[in-house]
Amino acid sequence: MALVAGAVPQLPDAGRVERAQETLALVIPTLCEAENIGGLLRHIRSVIDPLKITYEILVVDDDSRDGTAEVVSAIAAEDPRVRLLVRKGERGLSGAVLYGWRHTDAAILGVMDADLQHPPELLPKLLAPILEGRDLVIGSRYTPGGELGAWNPVRKFLSAAAVWVTWPLQKSRLRAKDPMSGFFMVRRECLDQVKLQSAGFKLLLEILVRGHIHSVEEVPFIFGQRYRGASKANFRVAWDYARLLGRLYAGRFGFSSHGL
C-alpha cells in the first residue's frame, strides 16, 4: 500500500479494520522521563482497564540515556499491551507521535505527555465521545472549566497569543479553543493520506487544519504541574511553531512559504 510521506497509514483490509475498529493506541513520547514513566503507565492502565476496551500504550523514546527505556521494558515484559519504540538520532514531539501511530493498527489514535501534566483520569472522558462517533476529542485548557495551572502571566499571555494566531487557519465551524493541546484522541480515518510535519511540537493544530475532521469536542482539564524533569519549551520549539504557521498560512491562503 502506497503511503504519503509523513502520513499515518490506513488499515489495509476489511478484516483488520473489523479487529481494530474499537482499539485505542495511546502514544506517550519520552525524552529522559525515567522518574515519571513507571508510575504514569500504572496509572493509565488502572484508568483504562475498567472501560473494557482493547488498547495498547506505545512509549516512543528518543534514545534517552537516563533509564527510561529500561523502566518501560520491564513493564512491557509483564504486560504486552505496553510497547517500547526507540528512535535513534531523532528528536521532536510530533515526529515521535507519528512514529508511534505508524506502528499500530488501532483505529483510535491518542497522545499524552509523560511529564504528569496530563491527568490520566481524563482518558475515559476523551474516549467516550470518540466511541460515540466524534472525529477528534481534545483535552482542553481553554474551554470552560479548563485552566493553565500555575503558569506565570507572561507564559499565559504567550500561550494565548499562540492560540489567537491560529484562528484564521481553523475551519470556521470546527474551531478548537485549545489547538495547541498535546492531549487528544483522533480517528485514524481522519488522517487518511494527510501529510503531517514530523518536526516541532504542535501536531494537533496541523490535524485541525489539514485533517479530514468533521466533528470536534473539547473536554476541560487543569494543566498539571511538572514534578520531575525539565520543560522542553525553548527557542527551537518557538521557531518550529513559527515555521509550521508559515506553512499552514501558505497552504490556506495561497502565498509562498519559501524558506520556511
Summarize the structure.
The protein is of the alpha/beta class and 260 residues long. Helices cover 35% and strands 14% of the residues. It has a seven-stranded mixed sheet with strand order 3-2-1-4-6-5-7.
CATH architecture: Alpha-Beta Complex
End-to-end separation in angstroms reads 30 Å
The low-confidence parts are: 1-5, 14-20, 229-233
Per CATH, the class reads Alpha Beta
Please identify the structural class as seen in this structure.
alpha/beta
Structure description:
There is one protein chain. The protein is an alpha/beta fold. The chain has one domain (16-253): Spore Coat Polysaccharide Biosynthesis Protein SpsA, Chain A. Helices cover 35% and strands 14% of the residues. The chain contains eight helices and seven strands. It has helices spanning 14-20, 34-48, 68-78, 93-102, 123-131, 153-164, 203-210, 235-253, and strands at residues 24-30, 55-61, 82-86, 108-111, 136-140, 184-187, 216-220. The chain has a seven-stranded mixed β-sheet with strand order 3-2-1-4-6-5-7. Helix 3 links the parallel strand 2 and strand 3. Helix 2 packs parallel to helix 3 (68-78). It is globular. It starts with 13 loop residues before the first helix and ends in a 7-residue tail after the last helix. Mean pLDDT is 85; it is low at 1-5, 14-20 and 229-233.
Q: What labels would you give this structure?
A:
Spore Coat Polysaccharide Biosynthesis Protein SpsA, Chain A, 260 residues, 8 helices, single chain, 14% strand, disordered N terminus, globular, alpha/beta, 7-stranded mixed beta sheet
